[in-house]
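Exercise (ungraded).
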Amino acid sequence: MVSKVKADLLIIGMGAAAQMAALYAHEINPELDILIVTKALKGKGGCSRMVQGGFNVVLTPRDSHEKHLMDTLKGGQYINDQYLARTLVEQATPTIKEMETKFGCFFDRNPDGTIHQKAFAGQSFDRTVHKADLTGIEIISRLTEQVMKRGFPVLQECRAVELLLDGPGEIVTGALLLDMRRGEFIVAEAAATLVATGGGPTHYRFHAPGPEKSVDGIAMLYRAGVIMKDMEMLQFHPTGLIVPGSVVAGALLEEGLRGAGAHLFNGSGERYMLNYAPEVGERATRDVVSRSSYLEMMAGRACPEGGVQIDASHLGAGFVLKTFPGMAERCRQFNYDLARGRVPVSPTAHFFMGGAVIDTGGRSTLEKLFVAGEDAGGVHGANRLGGNGICDSCVYGRQAGKALGKYLSGGNRSIKETRRGQVEEFMARLEAPLQRSRGANPFELRKAIQELNWNKVGVARKEPELSGALSEIEDIAEAVETAGVTGGAVYNMMYNTYLDIRSMIDATRIVAFSARLREETRGAHFRQDFPEQRDDYGLFNIFLKRSDDGRPVAEKKPVVFKYKSLEECRKYKK
Amino acid sequence: MAQTSGGVRNIKVFRYDPQQGGEGHFDSYVLNIQDETTTTILDVLLRIQREQDPTLSFRFACRVNMCGSCGMVINGKEGLACKTNVSHIPQGKEVTIRPLNHFPVIKDLVVDMEPFFKKYEEALPFYEPREETTEPAVIRPGSRERQDIGMATDCIACGCCVSSCTMCHYHEGYAGPAALNRAFTLLADSRDGLFEERLDRVLASCYNCRTEFNCTEVCPKRISGTRAIKYIQRLALKHIKAKPETIEAEQPAVAQPSCASEMAGSMAGNMAGNMDRRTFISQVGVGLLGTCLALGVGGVVGAAFVGPTRARTPRLWVPAASLSSIPVGDVTTIKINYETKNGLYTQQVAERVLVSRTGDEIICFKASCTHLGCMVKWDGNAGRFRCACHGGAFDRNGKVIAGPPPKPLDRYPFRVDSDHLLVEVG
């Protein structure tokens, strides 16, 4: 027997985008019955909480939205959706102010009591608002308290596994959830659904997001038939901590270190970034630094731990300990001294620039479905600037919340009927591994997926590896169909790993599929067989959706230079 | 850091399957760990799950000390699995992992955190702007409030403090350290508009704290719940002082520093309406302790109360005992009585002096614990002074050897006048 819940607004996820959306939808329309579901405990899952560096925003007349926009477009190598990018930078200002004045966040201050902004890479102005070097805790703790204050019901440790659709497959009617604590499915139906689970590319050997994440949002959206864009654009952060054998491996050392002037050395003790980006060195954008590090590693110039080394010691131990206490502590736990020595780091899978196609109110290509945060695409183009990520989640959570508040105030506050039989079909398939005591082991399959992606769809890509990855992932997908799960229904982590890898497989399919179609290097997408950025060829976005036979189909469309021409973007110097 | 190499470890993990019920049990695993200094307890659990027992359940999310999902009890002490390395546990010792205390177990190491969130919410942990504004407040980082709040807003709600707190077990209504810490950060925040309501909501709970410092000791973010709780109590005193209308309810003063009577009076004013007499009295009693702490800490309140009183009190030499009656090589407790002028009235004071006499040396200690002022007694068997309240202990020279006392035992100045021992009071 499957239990059912209904709400006006179903919000999937509980990071910054999800919580901001809930708060603003409620502000616009306090009557709304809002239901939040999260895979973790209240406010504990997702990547917003793990934000270290901070939030890019224009707060002084010496800076400008124009500059922030140009930095974002330049960082995104011109293929951003300019409409979304402009909304991002313009709305960031009121958003951060409201987070302080309405929700009680308190970010670090200048000596005169105004909000402090620090230096990040790829920016023309020091505009990153932060709370020491663990900014996400402040943001998510304060937002979670505001959600508590308003009494929205939260289904904790309930993960969405599929979106539900009406008969023709055009309207989203809600989602099928798994209550992880009881091991039971729940049908949640709503007049509108917001997917804000956060991307979290954990399907790589090294990954920055918490290992609890598994690209569920992007995979569900894709399976439901939503149009996605720029899925080849997956960011590798250059400074993931190397801790051999530990699940901590890949966790970030924040960008502020490079912003503050930390150096990167290869195994030969050379500051290699001066060769790749002589003007800015280590303060080059993440795509450039990650790629350079990777090439150094591939050329046999890795440090003994297998990556490169970051060195902040010349900034002074006192400064490092005071400015980056969280990072220093993280290093110290594994016997690295960030303040006084070099720490081994590696590029680590970090963020999807691609995602569901949305407008500035978070509306997707399916009716009654909204998407915000990392699950949505287009804002960042081919590479996201450090500090624009939490900014995106908060701004677009707020945008979507406001849009949802209005949308549900009109005649849209009705729940459409889910296609008959859809829930039963999903469940029959999803429950099958629980009936099999033998079969492929989900833990091993996850590792296989992570290795496949790291080696063939990683920092550096080329043919025939990409095509190989596409066929290999189908082999793994077949094995997953026969996977078996041990243990009972309650809090079965092996079963949840099985659900995780279902998502990871879809993510692999669409990233590799898109990556094949872009035969050039741009932003985070580095093709070794096409190492140049080709502006006479590559100024397009790849739009992709799932076809009826289950395979992705794609279409390239030229970038719309809505506000800034290609020439303006190219000429722009920070 | 301990050793850099690894080895074989025995790992004992608590198991509970709700479908089988019962009390739960421990399962043992043997793990070969290559490098214990880079292996976290979370790594250990993931390896057991992957290599030996896929049915093992535990909770985690970020794995870098930011989400507070993996709180558990590791070799008797609360901590985050992701922040505790195997090398933190003495070499070769068995690793024992069990779920947090005071919470219902869902399965194995996974507990139901709902009671935690409920207490948290009851403490009104959310910001409510004092006034509507669109511009962030201008507050200097060196301001008193920001210095006080510090990094205490970094709480990740992991529940370790609550699990470690014995009072959370004994007092059903106790909000617990995490909720009170959040309340403290908001009470100290000049931007917040719920001061009165929040103080009303949490103050009574603060008196359930017995200052054991367990919460402070286990917090993975190094936040002191104890400090937060005492801060609220001090804030309450200050607040009462700032509001003269509540002081009018003051009762005739008891023989204690003047602030104590204010405390009693205002508590009567604020709380008599919804509290039976016994609860009231017990809370005033603990309130006095809180007051003493405020004096000891020498905060704003302390200085204001103590300053003028001290200046007016003349010093006094009080005879304690004849020197020949004090045995050598022992510690003798002597009661002294004297009168002291305390503002408008004269007060009878009875005190105990702990006289330590060894060979030629005499030390006269005050018998009040430097932690919260409880009576200290000499334990001849152990050869130390002990405080029964919170386990404070001092050596023969008054030096702290255990527990919460912040400084050595206070001493009386003394002199010997024709076989009479006199101590100076005042």
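Further reading is listed at the end of the chapter. For now, observe: The two ends of chain A are 60 Å apart (CA to CA). The longest strand of chain A covers residues 184-195.
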